[in-house]
Amino acid sequence: MSETIKTDAVIIGAGPVGLFAIFELGLLDMKAHLIDILDKPGGQCAELYPEKPIYDIPGMPEVSGQKLTDQLMEQAAPFDPTFHFNRMVTGLEKIDDKTWRVTTDEDEVFEAPVVVIAAGGGSFQPKKPPIHEIDVYEQADTSNGLGVHYAVRKMEAFKDQDILISGGGDSALDWVLNLQPIAKSMTLVHRRDVFRAAPDSVNKMRALVDEGKVNLHIGQITELVGENGQLSGAHLKPAEGDPIEINCTSFLPFFGLTMKLGPISDWGLNLNENLIEVDTEKFATDQDGIYAIGDINTYPGKLKLILSGFHEAALMAHHAFKRVHPDQKLTFQYTTSSTSLQKKLGVN
């Protein structure tokens, strides 16, 4: 495992509530590291509805999911958070009465007195295409672009590969455009000749098709071909005509994401219908030092609203202060009048 990262708080989930938790912890002099399975901040807001308007954020009559994410990132910036994207938290264990150890699927190790679970409805998991024995070709080694991958963590791993991408959304089109320059060959398959991606991305993709740099097929992948777990091709059932075989050493299906509770269910926390039970004084779980805020928690009267998660983050931070700074007295202050808080924010 890599060298242990020691910090004040580990936040699991970089959605809006997790991002606001950086701000609330930072005001109270607590440093945070954030871990998220996605490749960018924003959670559902950025991944599922970046352009969809949200109407119930206080003071913002209308704001898109991406704009809200951008503003929360700007608000958190003075506290210099450290982000760890494309990672899933796989382990949570208690070291002593003051410290928790968090591990990820990238063999990273974090130790902190405070762990904040802000994972929304759980972790995002890729939707797998209905291809028989696809798991035979799935690759856990992110340094190797061969086989089936559901995310691109290291572009260089796909250099000089025959890449097959399936899907019609932003992720599929973005990676067609980004990987095509380094690929040996690039093929895009979608079930229909209509794409859900940004128009500019679609236009750029079609230009590459016209130039002969991308092969576009309308249809569905029905089978993968290879020996000893080494992918060499795929069978395509086109919308019209006879089935064909496509040469590919890398297959990237982008069929969207689904929410699953994932490893959280194994952490020994009190769960109620896959939600973490917390109190409403400090939004702590039944384990000292572990808090749950946002859609992942439950309590009497819970409303699954972003604004509720912001409130929960504030109360969480004030209680967490006592664990991180047990010898210090916490004096409640307002950002509108406290020169010390304004100095932390860089406005004074």
Polypeptide structure, described:
The protein has two domains: 207 residues, FAD/NAD(P)-binding domain, CATH 3.50.50; 128 residues, FAD/NAD(P)-binding domain (3-Layer(bba) Sandwich). Helix content is 22%, strand content 29%. It has seven helices and 23 strands. Strand 2, helix 1 and strand 3 form a beta-alpha-beta unit.
Summarize the structure.
The chain has seven helices and 23 strands.
Spatial ordering of strands, largest sheet: 12-18-13-14-15-16-17
Average pLDDT rating:
91
Number of helices: 7
Order of helices and strands: EEHEHEEHEEEEEEEEHEHEEEEEEEEEHH
Measured by DSSP, the beta-strand proportion falls in: 25-35%
The span between the termini is 42 Å
How many domains, as an integer?
2
The number of E-state strands comes to 23
CATH superfamily of the largest domain: FAD/NAD(P)-binding domain
> Which residue ranges are poorly predicted, with pLDDT under 50 across at least 5 consecutive positions?
none
Helix-residue proportion: 10-25%
- CATH topology-level name of the largest domain: FAD/NAD(P)-binding domain
Query: Would you state the CATH class of the largest domain?
Result: Alpha Beta
Quaternary state of this entry equals single chain
